[in-house]
Amino acid sequence: MKFIELILDFLNGQMNTPVPYQSLSQSWFHYLALSSAVLASVLAVRWLKKADESQLRRFLLVFASLLLTFEVYKQLIFSFQADWNYQWYIFPFQFCSTPMYIALIAGLTKNKKIQQAFINFLATYGFFAGLAAMIYPNDVFVATIGINIQTMIHHGAMMVVGIALLLNKVKLVPTSIVSATAVFSVLAVLAILLNFVHNTWIAEGTFNMFFINPQYNNHLPVLTSIEPLVPHFIFVLIYIVGFAFVAYLMLLLGTGILAVDSYRKSVNQKFWNNIVAEYESNYDSSSYNRWKNDVIIGSTANQHVGPIFSPVN
Fold this sequence. Notes:
The protein has ten helices and no strands. It has 313 residues and is an all-alpha fold. The protein has one domain. Helix 5 (112-135) packs across helix 7 and helix 7 runs antiparallel to helix 9. The N and C termini lie far apart (59 Å).
């Protein structure tokens, strides 16, 4: 126990609580985390584009393992800071906690329909949660260095995995949201059951999974204004529909990104087609054939007529 406490004491190092979008000295941690997540997103999208089934499973399992490992650290450090009294408010079943369980099951299951539904969830709901926390991280930063690293890796990885799956492994059609919402709804029901169990038999500390425990006010934007106006059951339905709408926006975002990329490729292809057409019109056929052999086919080395163009896809 002493050894564990020594490690935790080291990991409990303190820093000035990071703030977003201020001077470099105040916000360097956020800028570093956000830029790293963007770079990792680009690399993940490119890599997953060519990934086969086995590589996809490993991708999901590595993601789940990373989040679960840091979650164990988070649970330990918060308990350590409270003299080993468990802090119920950090029980690992908030909305942002669920992708690590979903990715683990998606990486292990042999059922294709279940796997695709879970992937759809990670690419829409999970992507939104990670993106929102990375862009607007006010509520996630604390003074503990390790927790700040954990939360940025956790939410940053959700963003990276979400966008990579969205652009490569999800059909960008409304039916994809149906299966993703089914997964989210089951998770919300589990959160309701956990809230009920804690309220009834434990009743210790703050326990507000998915922020829909009727004993506490919801603090999420828009929803916080709706909650006092309707019965709790109706509020939960509005909560699910609201998140489904936001998840659908992520699907539209993916559609837009792919449309822009397709347009870019089309413009690029037209450019090179025009280059080739102009070359053909300015040089006789024998010269063009020699140029094609040298530049495109590569059958002859360093022998060409006229300028060399290297069309790209």
